[in-house]
Amino acid sequence: MKAAIVTSAGMKPTFGEFDSPVPREGFEVITVTAAALTNLTKGRAAGSHYSADNHYPFVPGVDGVGTLADGRRVYFAIPEAPFGAMAEQTLVDPRRTITLPNNLDDVNAAALANPGMSCFAALVERARFKAGEIVLINGATGAAGFVAVQVAKALGAAKVIVTGRNAPELEALRSVGADVVIPFDLRPENERGVEDFEEALLSVFADGLDVVVDYLWGSSARTIIVAVAKAVEDAHPVRFVQVGEASREPVEVPAAALRSSAIQILGSGLKSVPMPKLLEGIRQTFDLAAQGKLYLPTKVVPLETVAENWEAPGKPRLVFTLRESL
Prior knowledge:
It contains 9 helices and 15 strands. Helix 5 crosses helix 6. The radius of gyration is 20 Å and the shape is globular. It is α/β, with parallel strands linked by helices. Strands 3, 4, 5, 6, 7, 14 and 15 form a 7-stranded mixed sheet that branches. The chain has a 6-stranded parallel sheet with strand order 10-9-8-11-12-13, with helices on both faces. A two-stranded antiparallel ribbon has the order 1-2. It is 30% helix and 22% strand. The two termini are 18 Å apart.
């Protein structure tokens, strides 16, 4: 079958022939129609993600959309190795599939699943978010943040604060529900960068904060944690949920910030949230999208262009599909 193929760690996939999956007990063969390019897929392909098993060659793609033998359209997650989502067919445990709503197309389902899952897992499963709470989304200019703003509002957030490095992209998030926009420039050459960001946070946090969903880590996360300790009222629990580390920076959290606040630092992702709960978040994502309450810009390209599109930006969300289904 035609597939994207990863032959070694750190190498881009190539497009070629790979053995087709064979049905066996406990697994179903799915004919793939669409698979999105996500940071999780790229991290596992590179061998750098904590969930990668580093067995090569294999087909990349942690999730996608396709059809079962009976013609039912489904979303699927975590195909059985060495098969992945970026191929004509894959092999999946049926417990990791979700039937798609009739009014949600394959491309949008593939695009929304991963960012929807990440924010539902962070807000609902890890933070135990309640309607009426105030949410800050750090690193909101990517696809995940774009979706997270909409999900937070749909769940009843009283206020959504967005932070990030791209001021115009942050401003654009007002159209999907962002209430407060705080851009930052934390480059070493900007001597006042951390100070300016902290001052902006302190002013906003004076009105309260309940949940942080962090897609960046690094110096921005550290600044937010310090500002929480300084500005949020005594003993008020702020749940800081770490989802991604796009900054690729380590964090040295001041011990005093932890002792002087009720901040709770949590992680959210594979293995910290059970698979059934992750799938439930995706199901809720699809329900919102089917109701017209959630969307994400997409770009569709044929799977044969996988190598040249492997480093595409996260937004619009790149979705691979077979040329025949375009």
